[in-house]
Here is the input.
Amino acid sequence: MNNKARKVFAIIIFLLLLIISSTNYYGIKGIDNLAYVVAIGLDKGDNENLKLSLQISVPNSGDSGSSSSSQSASVVVDSIECPSINTGINLFNSYLGKEVNLSHCKVLIISEELANDGIGEYLYTLTNNIEFRTDSSIIISKCDAKSYLEYSTPLLDKVSARYYEIAPSSSEYTGYTESIRLNEFFSAVTDSFSEPVAILRFY
Here is the structure.
């Protein structure tokens, strides 16, 4: 390759790099394009459907200038009836205008009524979801899961994610709770030599 061909080749490479570096990547997902789920609630729906409830964090909700803003101002709880968790998440994506992201989910609330019918398929769905954290806490609620998410308000912490993360860890200094994680619960469900145990709440 002569000098002239090398110069032409170098100019083409330079132009390609310049074009690539100046191009905006619209496919990249930013914070504004995602709806971060803090907690998931599962209830028994009508016609043998699942009632999926999501507690979604609202960014910058604490910038309203009011120091006495309630917990409900920083999160939104919404629910939908669907045949499966994946279908429900797709339905949420279609009308929220944002993509549901489960990577910050701290807790899975399951109503006692649904738990009595069996929750194996829902556990398989969540453990196979690469976004859902297997160290999320499992709570069985006496009331329906949506009501639990709406009325479970932290007393000493305004951040829902931190509240859900700290509450089960109180087992380290009290004898009234137990820290039950999804991976342990799922293992107990699938094993033939152990029984699954979860936190029972009466909200």
User: Anything to note?
Assistant: Residues 31-60+71-201 form one domain. Residues 61-73 have pLDDT under 50 and may be disordered. Residues 3-22 form the longest helix (20 residues).
